Amino acid sequence: QVQLQESGGGSVQSGGSLRLSCAISYKRPCMGWFRQAPGQEREGVAAIDSNGSTSYGDSVKGRFTISQDNAKNMLYLQMDSLKPEDTARYFCVAVSASYECTYRATRAVSYNYSGQGTQVTVSS
Length: 124
Fold this sequence. Notes:
Elements: E1 4-7, E2 10-13, E3 18-24, E4 30-36, E5 43-48, E6 54-56, E7 64-69, E8 74-79, E9 88-95, E10 113-114, E11 118-123
Parallel strand pairs: 2-11
Antiparallel strand pairs: 1-3, 3-8, 4-5, 4-9, 5-6, 7-8, 9-10, 9-11
């Protein structure tokens, strides 16, 4: 079974940066991040495939960067120019091969594995 452990969340001011990390027990060819704010639906953030091709949601494109270290079985999300609307719990996700590897697939509930999440709070 895939186990994922996120870390690196915290509280920052608008315009600041955070780097999220995810330790992966078993890496799938498609990995990614989604986020969820209280009372809101999951929002796909970013995805990366085994070739290193990336996909980003429109709300984070140009500000967030997803990367992976295959040797260490780690996934990262560098978040720059943070905005208050980025406040949410961020989840690392191992995307099922049933889906095309895009940021949209990261929010799917079926067949994906995700961790417990890490909270990101951005104040204005």
